[in-house]
Amino acid sequence: MVRLEPTQQAHRFVQLILRRRLMRDVGPEQLRMTLAQLLTVGVKGWHGVKLNQSDSNTSSHSIALSVQVPSENLLVYFIFNAYWEPLDFELPPLHKGDGGSWHRWIDTYLDSPQDIVAWETAPMVPSHTYKTGARSVVALCAKLTGTEPH
Q1: What is the pTM of this model?
Q2: Fewer CB within 10 Å of terminal CB in the chain, N or C?
Q3: Distance, CA of 46 to CA of 81 (rounded, Å)
């Protein structure tokens, strides 16, 4: 495997973010929401390492945000770990009948090229928890078949 220089890694990372954004100019993707719209209309839940238990005290070093958009049949889970140690975050359960599973799109702790992958090929997360590396950001997504909020 060819090892990319740090500037090449950053360039590749931004290219993949932009590629996902540019998909919005293709057919059905034009109807998709921007991140700002997703956060405005989505059903949001704040979490810590435990579901529904956000730690908002002044010494907290981590937080997670789940956003479900029923009209998109999409559930997104953002994890922000500012702590200097790895942390295990509980993931929202995907109910039977959802037909979905969690997929890792972004994990800034991982080395390139695993830090961000093409949206369409994001690897499945096989567990009910996700171990984040120290000082990292993670974006997971799940495509759902139902539209009931979780």
Answers
A1: 0.77
A2: N
A3: 14
